[in-house]
Amino acid sequence: MISTNPVYTGLETTIFETMSRLARQYDAINLGQGFPDMDGPEEIRRLAAEALLTRSNQYPPMLGLPELRQAVAETASRFYGLEVDWQSEVLVTSGATEALSDCMAALLQPGDEVVVFEPLYDCYLPLIRRAGGIPRFVRLEPPHWQLDEAALRAAFSPRTKAVLLNNPLNPATKVFSEAELSQLARLIIEHDAIAICDEVYEHIVFDGRRHLPLIMLPGMRERTVRIGSAGKTLSLTGWKVGYVTATPALLDPIAKAHQFTTFTTPPNLQYAVAHGLSAGDSYYRGLADELQRKRDRFSAGLAGLGFRVSPVAGTYFIVADFSGRDTDEADVDYCRRMTVEARVTAVPLSAFYEAEGPRRFVRFCFSKRDEVLDEALSRLAAWR
Ligand SMILES: Cc1ncc(COP(=O)(O)O)c(C=O)c1O
After folding, report:
1. From CA 175, how far away is CA 165, in angstroms rounded?
2. Mutate to test the pocket of ligand 1, among 104, 116, 200 (most ligand atoms within 8 A of CB)
3. What string of H, E and C letters represents the secondary structure of 96-142?
4. Which residues pair with 163 in a beta bridge?
5. Which of 35, 68, 97, 167 for a ligand 1 pocket mutation test, highest count of atoms within 8 Å of Cβ?
6. What percent helix, strand, coil does the chain show, rounded to 5?
7. Out of 103, 183, 209, 276, which could bridge 44 as a Cys pair, Cβ 3.0 to 4.6 Å?
8. Taking a C-beta distance cutoff of 8 angstroms, is the pair 358, 143 a contact?
9. Cα dihedral across residues 205, 207, 210, 212: positive or negative
10. How far apart are CA 294 and CA 296, in angstroms?
């Protein structure tokens, strides 16, 4: 038997893939996978198409096209007052996922501990473990997703090298408060650790909230890596264009990992994303307003069907407790049955926990056309 790396060899097909397959098999509306069913701005897509014909299609600079690095720096200044040197502090990657992979490869050494928050995004643990890191969990529970200060402190140790924070948090839909971020920053500084901040949903926050990047907190500028994604900000998930912002001492090794992973990202997409990020405030407001409207529409529909919907502060997901719908099934079984019988697909919340997650909650993605959301609701109503 040929031995291969155990981190990936033992991994089962994810529940996301299993549910998506089942959705295809039963012709279900797939609200399990997290992507918008409407492509991002046509103007940006046209620019990408034109750039493919009129601009160079050869390797662009390893750090990314200057236009896009400048746009990333400008948006950081415009939205957060974060001043960034685009030449030495910004790197373009093939999606936030590549950025996360580069960070783990470049910043961790075997045995380093990384504090993570459950529920967590599926690539985090394999990437940490493949880099030799050891995850230390802080668990957040629905419906309030409160951060317990004692549990947070207990996750830190003298071996803590990094904290991996997803804010706004998928799938909890939580936006960490300034007080929580301050607590976290204090512990990170106390332990001389690095913050790796996955902020792909930075512009998808609701009810007048403003996203506060951890890098903005006192003492965090030199020890934080901030990651964004055009996939979420411009509703172009298939493009896989991400960007990293960090002080040169952190960015340099991350860029080296990038150099030997993908080296670069398609230049026409980078060029178009640069224009997309420079859109006026109305684009950004429109993105959040439109998703807030969908959140309200779909939450109200679910509540009318007996689901208990957790408050959604950000991201385009809803976590709903289905125990009011006369079943004591576990979430995985409920999601399967909902796909087969109602022809609507969600994903079980427990899949976002390493061990024994909450069993009565499912996650729906609501970044879909209104008619799709309405049809899903009427199928669920008929199922009941
Ligand atoms: C929390 C989080 N991080 C990262 C990603 C991946 O981003 P990208 O498609 O840019 O790799 C996603 C996509 O769903 C996500 O939800």
Report:
1. 11
2. 200
3. HHHHHHHHHHHHCCCCCEEEEEECCCCCHHHHHHHCCCEEEEEECCC
4. 115, 195
5. 97
6. 45, 15, 40
7. 276
8. no
9. negative
10. 5
Give per-10-residue mean pLDDT for the chain (384 aa).
90 88 97 93 98 98 98 98 98 98 98 98 96 98 95 98 98 96 98 98 97 98 98 97 98 98 98 97 97 98 96 96 90 96 97 94 97 98 90
Q: Specify the pairing of strand 90-93 against strand 113-118.
A: unpaired
| Lookup: tokens for 217 | 């907190």
CA distances from 130 to 94, 109, 134, 184, 281 (A): 19, 10, 10, 25, 40
Atom of ligand 1 nearest to the CA of 169: 1
243 within 8 A of 228, measured Cβ to Cβ: yes
pLDDT of residue 177: 97
Distance separating the N- and C-terminal Cα atoms of the chain: 50
